[in-house]
Specification:
- With about 325 residues, the protein is of the alpha/beta class.
- It has one domain: Ureohydrolase domain (Arginase, Chain A, 3-Layer(aba) Sandwich), CATH 3.40.800.10.
- About 25% of the residues lie in helices and about 15% in strands.
- It has helices at about 55-65, 95-115, 130-140, 165-175, 200, 210-215, 220-230, 260-270, 295-305; strands spanning about 35-40, 85-90, 115-120, 140-145, 175-185, 205-210, 235-240, 275-280.
- An 8-stranded parallel beta sheet has the order 2-1-3-8-7-4-5-6, sandwiched between helices.
- β7 (about 235-240), α8 (about 260-270) and β8 form a beta-alpha-beta unit.
- The longest helix has 17 residues, at about 95-115.
- The chain starts with about 35 loop residues before the first strand and ends in a 19-residue tail after the last helix.
Length: about 325
């Protein structure tokens, strides 16, 4: 019998039953004894358009019930190498965004004190800033891979410094980031001025727009990203609105011309071997996608993040045919 927690399998309990945890993993009150933990931040008080991301963590957990423990594409078997649990949700103050940010930072300091890597179910993108503050306190400044339709580097929104369009300006101000190891992928859409993406480049960040990678295989890009990051501690933040709206309609600030889901998989899988110290998947708003597809996509990307954490070997299987597909 494995010494590691295992997801509840579909042959042991029907997919529509069992615990309402990520992949129906055992729940746990704290991160003690874990290598990685799934944790929700049910928050949408930082959103500027359509709300509903407070319901994201619950929907992502629900759709994760279809995910099986072995990654057929990469050969990763995370539950054979890591102790993983679902530790529930952060108890934010849903009436006060500033207090919620402080609560998030304190909660993640406690999680990180156990040596666990947090995998966060969002929740609006404001949350990444207070998480990065806790990450900085544990690991120092980190490299960042930020996948998004939007740069999220506004100085303010409606005069407020805390919002889902400001987290990376705040993280930069707080010394959370290694500037020459920050990569933003998938930025697109209309802006208020021609230089809306320029601030990030002025800090030394690498900005790859959606137009530059439209329809492209991204394995070569991710090889270069890995080279840029090197052995630095790295945080991955993935906004579901980076995907084309036809693939992820359940989000608040859609932009046409986004990534394909296979490109999203290439981005996440392309970070295998990087010293990841935390990941998040944000901006899933279930009310705008009754089919559950957006939450399903988010759940699978979180599973892929688990599969690339340090200590999980990647063993891609040999082809099952004799064809040359190069």
């Amino acid at each position: 019998m494995s010494r590691f927690n295992q997801p509840l399998g579909g042959n042991d309990m029907p997919r529509f039953g069992g615990p309402a945890t990520f992949m129906r993993l055992p729940p746990q009150a704290t991160a003690e004894g874990c290598d990685a933990v799934f944790v929700g931040i049910p928050m949408d008080i930082g959103t500027s358009n359509r709300p509903g991301t407070r319901l994201g963590p619950r929907a992502i957990r629900d759709e994760s019930r279809m995910i099986r423990p072995f990654n057929m594409a990469t050969g990763a078997a995370p539950f054979e190498h890591l102790q993983v649990a679902d530790i529930g949700d952060v108890a934010i103050n849903t009436f006060d965004l500033k207090k919620s940010c402080a609560i998030i930072t304190d909660t993640y300091r406690e999680i990180l004190s156990h040596g666990a890597i947090p995998l966060t179910l969002g929740g609006d993108h404001t949350l990444t800033w207070p998480v990065l503050r806790a990450i900085r306190d544990r690991h120092g400044p980190v490299a960042l891979v930020h996948v998004d339709a939007h740069a999220d580097v506004n100085e303010t929104m409606f005069g407020e410094k805390e919002a889902h369009g400001t987290p990376f300006r705040r993280a930069w101000e707080d010394g959370c980031l290694i500037n020459d190891k920050v990569v933003q992928i998938g930025l697109r859409g209309s802006g208020y001025a021609a230089d809306d993406f320029a601030w990030a480049r002025e800090q030394g960040w690498s900005v790859i727009t959606a137009e530059e990678i439209a329809g492209r295989d991204l394995r070569r890009l991710m090889e270069q990203v890995r080279g840029l990051i090197g052995d630095a501690p790295c945080y991955l933040t993935f906004d579901i609105d980076s995907l084309s709206p036809g693939l992820a309609s359940g989000t608040g600030t859609q932009e046409i011309g986004g990534l394909m889901d296979w490109q999203a998989l290439q981005i996440v899988r392309g970070l295998a071997g990087v010293n990841l110290v935390g990941c998040d998947l944000v901006e899933v708003s279930p009310p705008f996608d009754p089919s559950g597809t957006t939450a399903l996509t988010g759940a699978n990307l979180l599973y892929e993040m688990l599969c690339i954490l340090p200590g999980v070997p990647q063993r891609p299987p040999a082809p099952l045919h004799g064809f040359d597909l190069s």
